[in-house]
Amino acid sequence: MNPGRHFPMAPSPHFAPLDGVVLTVYFLATLAVGLSFWRRSRSVEGYTAANRSLPGWLTGLSILGTYVSSISFLALPGKAFADNWNPFVFSLAMPLATWIAVKWFLPFYRKEGHVSAYLHLEERFGPWARMYASACYLATQVVRMGAVMYLMALPMNVLLGWDIRWIILATGVTVTLYTFIGGIVAVIWTDAIQTVVLIGGAIACAAIMTFSMPGGPAQLFEIAEANNKFSLGGFGAGLTSSTFWVVLLYGLVINLQNFGIDQNYVQRYLASKSDSEARKSVWLGGLLYLPLSAVFFYIGTALFAYYTVHADQLPDVYRDVARSDSVFPYFIVTVLPPGVTGLLIASIFAAAMSTVSSSLNSSATILVSDYYKRYVNRQATEVQSMRMLIVTTVVWGALGTVIGLAMTQVRSALDAWWMLAGIFGGGTLGLFLLGFLSKRVTSRAALAGVGVGVIVILWMTLSPKLAGFPEAMRSPFHGFLIIVFGTAAILIVGLGVTAFLKPPVAKRS
Q: Which helix (H) or strand (E) element contains residue 259?
């Protein structure tokens, strides 16, 4: 695939020297943060858990930064521009998921104290459960890193006119460098800084759009209302389309997976200096996503209103639904004033780098704790463990960058990411909940549940896409329900097998 094929535009004349200064300062500041925390990350505990010393507001911003990627920064406005606010229902599930996390998941991990999110699965069901969950996580993270870097590079090609491959390489090298230099402390601090930059850029852009309308803000809302742009979707009971209820259920399960079994979040639970600070971090990160995602959807709605009034300013190619993700970058490159353009570019980079740095540190932590110290060197010293953490960070960063470069050859990186995320995601949450909700579930019952759950996930993911698959046997359900049904299958089968294998109660004489 020709890297310039997606976005054939020339570099924008709006990318002024001031924008270059903003972007350069941002990159230098990011690297400086990593270097400043070099000494605090020279131990395994410091590198992976920040010596459990950070304040809640900081780890809370980091949780938010981990949650928002360049996919969200570009895809959410694109969805609202092309359709309506139906995907925003996903965010409405966050308060309930956050409450469950604070009530049960956070205390569980704080009490256990293990830096690996999957060690307790081995204690509960045996080594296979730990390896299964950690392998799924590692595969998901490396593909996620590649997809995020690639999808971030596409609009950067529009904004800057640079070759996509060089953008991916520059991002991969920069993120890997400050991640292995500064460890989780640098990751969390840069997450927090990047989150502030991201929020500032989004709010600035939303404000500019609102007051750029010839008829003022009222005109924007009139156009949006007339075109049903604020709709949250239908409220029917069907399972074949993205109704309000389907998206809400999907959002709840995905958010529970993030808070309950994602290594990124578990490390932030442990990095907080106290239980109260940890609770504060989860509430802050979880609840801030709701208004932030609303801003992103509002940007998409504002884009629709703006280009309804200024129809001659948007080329027809960008009106294609398949190109809706590129409308926001096109607006940035052609409309925003100097300085703000640089801020928005830095925001998109911030969203991508925050996601990739978190994935890098958490993946290195899992590789060392779940594999190296479990199977290769059980008596590893502090120096050996630190060396492996640095090596695995660099190797995983290189691998993620390679995946990002490979994404330039696939037809749809986003479709590939969604499919792989669906396959890898559902089983781990179901397995965790099976052990968390019942003490009676045995290893055999859990293994049976995972087996059936994976079959359900594969069937729902692949049957609609495989040529020659019998029509009557194809999954009729919406793709959002893959992780929902997969998780439910693991729970139902695991609990059912446990009940079936329950030893008979001895009769009293």
A: helix 244-261
